[in-house]
Specification:
Low-confidence stretches: 6-13
Number of strands: 7
Strand order of the largest sheet: 1-2-3-4-5
Largest sheet: 5 strands, antiparallel
Distance between the termini: 78 Å
Mean pLDDT: 83
Strand content: 15-25%
Number of helices: 3
Amino acid sequence: MPYSPIQCHIVSIDLIHNQNRVTTMSTINEVTSQADYIAAQRSRLSAQWQAYHRTLINGITHSKIIHNHELICGHNHDARFLLFDHFMIRIQLNDDFYSRDICYCINVATPDQAERLLPFAHATLDENGTIDGSVNNRDTQAVTEHYLMKISVIYQCLFNSMHDNHSAHKELEKIILNR
């Protein structure tokens, strides 16, 4: 039996109302699914960072080839080392939301200045624990070698400043990124 114009209008309002409810339910499901994905990926990346952090500290503190390199107290989210009892290096995952960027910084302040940690190198950590596309974050030797490669520029600066008899701090300023 055909609907009257009033019944047709009521049916169309019901359809619109139900469609909005379906859209709302679909949106809630999508948001929930996206939130779960985001949380899982952040948790996975955080676990990979913690694994890298432990491996790096283990590699540096147990290395027989690295001298004049001391672990110093850092925060939960970074690793800090002191070179030659003078130059502090900080390694941390960048502060951006879901950042995969490992930032290597050095304190370029002179002893009479406030701390000035500036970046001199970067690396990328993925959710599978691979650093710069090839280094396994659980391989102590590979992580240590990767780290030494990153900081080799500091040793070169210090060597150059001593060899050429000029300020180490001025030499280190040359390696700072984003200038």
